[in-house]
């Protein structure tokens, strides 16, 4: 005797939402800070500048997991594409924040007798991410939702 | 699921676009600023500062500036040179009067440019004249 159909569908949706949320979590909590630290090292910052994730960052990552699960569980409801878009927008905003607002900056670095200040502008990369990740990430779930509604008998 | 083709196309285009945009940054992060070195020599009454570039990504609109600073921070002599493109093995040279070195306490080197013509960078290094070689 298995679960009823609706429970199986809900469990499946929650699992897919968890997987999507886990992807957000890994990118926000580990990948983006790692990339930022690598770029700072490229500018001369000492290796090992990567700090363990703060509680606030872990909390934001878990919030994205929750939003993803809710968006998936509410499929068919208009709240689902709105929550998907919210997750995309929040993940982008967190990324911009973690990327120093678009500039990697290393100041007052001592290299031998020299004092080095360096900065690297990441705006072009963030613009590409906005055009190819944020805009489709908001519009496609909405289009999918209304397409599915239009297809319903 | 509706519009799966749209998601696939947008996903592939996004992957290619982000990959192309991120490649120069990845190369820069791997090579680091060690690919840019500055050496100084004195010859024929001139202090010659030479920027050498040994990175794999082309730098564009590079400006190389050198300032000799007095102990009070005043600029005793300055000069700069630029290059529209700087490839691996390329160099830029700035010449300043050697006598300006006598009263200088520090030398400030500023390098600006665009990694692959996309990502603007700015590096400023200040060090005592004795240690600048």
How many beta-strand segments of chain B?
A: 7
Give the count of helical stretches of chain A. 4
Strand content of chain A: 5-15%
Whole-number average pLDDT of chain B? 88
Helix-strand topology string of chain B = HEEEEEHEE
The name of the CATH architecture of chain B is Sandwich
β-strand percent of chain B reads over 45%
Total helical elements of chain B: 2
- Strand numbers in spatial order across the main sheet of chain A: 1-2
Our Rg estimate of chain B from Cα atoms comes to 20 Å
Envelope shape of chain A: elongated
Order of helices and strands of chain A: HHHEEH
| Helical/strand content category of chain B | alpha+beta
Question: What name goes with the CATH superfamily of chain B?
Answer: Immunoglobulins
Description of the molecule:
- The complex is a heterodimer of chains A (about 150) and B (about 130).
- Chain A has about 150 residues and is mainly α.
- Chain A has helices spanning about 5-40, 55-75, 80-100, 125-150; strands at about 105-110, 115-120.
- Chain A has a two-stranded antiparallel sheet with strand order 1-2.
- In chain A, strand 1 and strand 2 (about 115-120) form a beta hairpin.
- Chain B has one domain: Immunoglobulin-like (Sandwich).
- Chain B is built from two helices and seven strands, in the order αβββββαββ.
- Chain B has helices at about 5-30, 100-105; strands at about 35-45, 45-55, 60-70, 75-85, 90-95, 105-115, 120-130.
- In chain B, a hairpin with a 2-residue loop joins strand 1 (about 35-45) and strand 2 (about 45-55).
- The model of chain B has no long low-confidence stretch (mean pLDDT about 90).
- Classes of the chains: A mainly alpha (about 150), B alpha+beta (about 130).
- The interface between A and B is medium-sized, with 33 and 32 residues.
- Strand 2 (about 115-120) of chain A pairs antiparallel with strand 7 of chain B, so a sheet runs across the interface.
């Amino acid at each position: 005797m298995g679960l009823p159909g609706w429970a199986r569908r809900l469990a499946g949706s929650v699992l897919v939402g968890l997987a999507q949320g886990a992807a957000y979590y890994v990118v926000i909590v580990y990948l983006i800070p790692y990339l930022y630290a690598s770029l700072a090292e490229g500018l001369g910052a000492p290796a090992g500048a990567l700090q363990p994730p703060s509680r606030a960052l872990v909390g934001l990552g878990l919030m994205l997991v929750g939003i993803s699960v809710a968006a998936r569980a509410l499929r068919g409801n208009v709240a689902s594409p709105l929550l998907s878009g919210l997750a995309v927008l929040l993940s982008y905003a967190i990324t911009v924040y973690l990327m120093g607002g678009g500039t990697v900056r290393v100041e007052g670095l001592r290299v031998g007798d020299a004092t080095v200040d360096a900065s690297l502008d990441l705006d072009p990369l963030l613009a590409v991410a906005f055009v190819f990740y944020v805009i489709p990430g908001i519009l496609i779930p909405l289009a999918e939702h209304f397409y599915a509604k239009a297809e319903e008998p | 699921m509706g519009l799966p083709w749209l998601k696939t196309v947008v996903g592939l285009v996004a992957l290619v676009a982000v990959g192309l945009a991120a490649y120069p940054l990845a190369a820069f992060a791997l090579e680091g600023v060690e690919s840019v070195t500055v050496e100084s020599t004195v010859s024929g009454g001139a202090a010659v500062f030479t920027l050498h570039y040994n990175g794999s990504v082309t730098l564009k609109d590079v400006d190389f500036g050198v300032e000799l600073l007095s102990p009070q921070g005043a600029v005793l002599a300055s000069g700069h040179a630029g290059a529209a493109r700087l490839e691996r093995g390329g160099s830029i040279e700035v010449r300043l009067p050697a006598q300006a070195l006598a009263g200088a306490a520090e030398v400030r080197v500023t390098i600006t440019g665009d990694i692959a013509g996309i990502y603007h960078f700015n590096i400023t290094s200040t060090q005592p004249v004795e240690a600048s070689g």
